[in-house]
Structure formats: C-alpha cells, structure tokens
Specification:
With 196 residues, the chain is mainly alpha-helical. The protein has ten helices and no strands. The chain has helices at residues 4-30, 33-40, 44-51, 54-72, 82-98, 100-113, 118-142, 148-160, 163-168, 177-195.
Length: 196
C-alpha cells in the first residue's frame, strides 16, 4: 500500500511537471506561482509550503531535471566497462542538455543573469555541481586520472559541443537519436585519445 510520503512525492513531481510546462510556454517572467498552481490544480499555499518562493520552485525543477540523468542511466551503469559507460552517460547527458526541460531552465537563468544571477547560481549548484562529481567518481574507478573532475568536464564539453548552445538559441530542434549516437561516439573516441 502506498504511504502518505509516496503520495506527496508523486504529487510534488506532478506539480513540478506542471511548473515546467508553464515555464516552457511562458518563459521565466511569465511564470508565476499562481499560474503553476492553476496548471497543477493546486493551491498557492501548497506551492509556498513545499517550495518556498519562486526561486525555491526553480531550484526544485532543476533538481528534478538533474535527477532525470541518474534515473535514465541503466541499473548496471556503475559496473559497465569504460566505453559502454561513457556511451550510456554521454547519450543520456546529451538528451537531457538538449531537451525541452533543460532548455527552458537554462533560458530562464540566462534571461535573469544581467539583473539577478540567483537563478544561474541555483542552476549550477543544483545541476552541474551535484551531477559532475558523481560522474568524476565513476571515471576515477575506471581510469587512472590525476584530475577526475577535469576529465569529467572535458567529456561533457566533448559530448555537448555546440548542440546545447544551438538549442538555447532556438536554431535547432531536439536531436534525433542517430545524431545523439554519432555525437557521443565521436566524444568517446576523442576522450579516449586524450586519456587512454
């Protein structure tokens, strides 16, 4: 039988998904807690109790989006051989970074950066700062590296190339699977040339 906490977690995820839908449709300035509450058929009080203010809600959306990477990786990711793991991680990372959710969250942070960089700080602290060390730790278990974090950062740069920037600028659509595979294969090949 589901517990009350499980029900709350499910409802919280539904509200975050509704918030993301509003953010994609209306951008950051057009997104209000009232609009999210309306979209989610929730009370404003629930939103404020669970997330605090609008910035707290933004942080929760980023955490939810960043955790999608962990959820998407195969269960045996930790035990995968190096090349297989790099391909699995790279493909999920590229899907995440060029997907609608990440694009909307990054655009919101960029739009506010000039007047108030708080969203950018949240994006870095709740996204990259939490996911990159996990990947660096995985790399360190598979390779002899002097700087696992530096290697992890290089792999991410090789994977995303210009794809994320092009999506943020609105000049490309989400990448087809064949292109994701090709980009990740190139990134793995180039990474192993650097570090093997």
């Amino acid at each position: 039988m589901p517990t009350e906490q499980t029900g709350n977690d499910t409802r919280r995820a539904e509200i975050l998904a509704c918030g993301l839908k509003v953010l994609i449709a209306k951008d950051w300035r057009g997104t209000s807690m009232i609009a999210v509450a309306r979209e989610a058929s929730a009370s404003k009080e629930t939103l404020y109790n669970w997330f605090g203010d609008k910035a707290g809600f933004f942080g929760a959306m980023i955490r939810e989006n960043a955790s999608a990477l962990d959820r998407a990786l195969p269960e045996d990711f930790g035990a995968m051989p190096l090349e297989d793991g790099l391909r699995a991680f790279g493909a999920e990372l590229l899907r995440l970074m060029t997907g609608e959710a990440s694009v909307a969250l990054n655009r919101a942070a960029i739009a506010e950066a000039g007047s108030d960089p708080v969203l950018g700080r949240i994006l870095v602290s709740e996204g990259k700062a939490k996911s990159l060390p996990k990947f660096a730790g995985w790399l360190a278990r598979h390779m002899a590296l002097d700087d696992p974090m530096g290697a992890a950062e290089k792999f991410v740069v090789l994977v995303k190339g210009e794809a994320q920037l092009e999506r943020l600028l609105g000049v490309t659509e989400p990448l087809p699977e064949a292109e994701i595979t090709a980009r990740v294969d190139r990134a793995v090949r180039d990474f192993l040339k650097l570090y093997a």
